[in-house]
Structure prediction request, 104 residues.
Amino acid sequence: MVGCVTQTSWLEQAYYVMTIVGVFGLFWYVIETYKLRKISHRQSEIAAAQLENSAKPCVLILEDADQLRAFEDRNLILKNVGTGPALNSLGGCISGPIGPQLQH
Prediction:
């Protein structure tokens, strides 16, 4: 019988089709996994940056309102309103001339 499709050739064609579909599926899986890896790496970098920024000091320089005297006798108060420690600040209260203590 010429031109007749036998059962063996039909199974071979189905095998080739399934192989091609499987290879495309594997490539799609590899691409999606790579995208997920890049996104998760970026998210971990963002989370680390947020954690680092969440523990920063914010120091305010306030003028003591109770003692309004001459310019050179004003008291300044340093107040940390941030979430982290202000280790390199000048101290809690500065009295006397304003200029010399703040120039570092």
